[in-house]
Amino acid sequence: MSDKDYALIYEIFDQIDEGISRIFYYFAPIQSPIDFTKNYDNQMRLDAISMMLIAIGESIKKLEKKISPSQFERFPNVDWRGAKGIRDILSHTYFQIQPEVIFQTCREDIPILQTAIQALKSEYNC
Fold this sequence. Notes:
Layout lengths: L2 H25 L12 H25 L4 H5 L6 H13 L6 H25 L3
Helix pairs in contact: 1-2, 1-5, 2-4
């Protein structure tokens, strides 16, 4: 793998890390799915989280082209397909976002994804 490939992989990991950090920040005051609809500020949180999920899904698609599938297989508890799929759903049906799905994703899936990304990132010395 060339230095250019490593640099791109580093950039992708960095983008995913940043997206996850933003999701945690935006999600912090949300205690239930209904909170997303209580006021305009929380609706903006839902929008911001959705945008980060789109960006993360796209970055995972790019990462799949750069690292071995076996790297992803080492983390069977991460729904890699779902992470890419939510990107497609949010991008194409934006006005049909279900707060319950976003809440569940933030509460349960994002922490698991963060652990896997940090482990992969450390293996590439990023």
